[in-house]
Amino acid sequence: MITMQINLTGLEGIPLVKAGDNIAEIIKDAILQQDYDLKDGDIILIAETLISKAEGNIVRIDDITPSEKAFEVAGICKKDPKLVELILENSTEIVEVGPNFIVTETKHGFVCANAAIDESNVDDGLATPVPENPDESASKIREFLEDEFDKKLAVIITDTQGRAFRVGAIGTAIGCSGMNPLWVRIGEKDLYGRELETTEIASADELASAASLIMGQADEGLPVVIISGFAGFDYLRDENSNIKPLLRPKEFDVFRK
Length: 257
Fold this sequence. Notes:
Blueprint: E1 7-10, H1 23-34, E2 43-47, H2 48-54, E3 59-60, H3 68-77, H4 81-89, E4 91-98, E5 101-106, E6 111-113, E7 126-127, H5 134-149, E8 154-163, E9 166-179, E10 183-184, E11 200-201, H6 203-215, E12 224-228, H7 233-236, E13 237-238
Parallel strand pairs: 2-8
Antiparallel strand pairs: 1-12, 2-12, 3-7, 4-5, 5-6, 8-9, 9-13, 10-11
Helix pairs in contact: 1-5, 3-4
């Protein structure tokens, strides 16, 4: 019997990051300090808050001046109008507003609650919007680490998001470099020899969810996770990849019609 397994390792020694820090260097140092044996096909998953902090993408909420639209929306969702204004500034469309939530489409094309603005793991009164270009951030980190360790790697930037019709948040990929985030298995055969006609696997999201189990959502302090042994790496290997294959075009989003 062939045993298939993946291994998840939380990278220790990642300090509290501040604007201007070099995340790639920090990860390299942590890998060496932990004496981790980096291998071809390893996937490095990084919490988006780490990227936003390092890139200076941090907003002081009290510095925001709410617009009339922000006050209007805040009256419905019962959120701070200043926070609502930040959500609106980082969105291209309001999809739905309800008690304590605003579902929007972000400038990146993500449909999620509150434009994925994060108020956790930062000082009181601060918030971190989604990094300006998660794909570019992932690419720079991957290229640096591949050069340093002479390995073929992938880097995925992760965020915690909810899902339609299900309770609870999971790890989600918002940036990707080094592998295609979508595994199209159309044309392959199932166990009974039937040809798959519609099967597409959001592999980057599955990997992000797995990493989230170790990253946690509170004070775990493990914002970087390395996954080894993912069987699809070679097939999905793509140095020019980005997150766009996972974004459903609006015309096919039946829940927004």
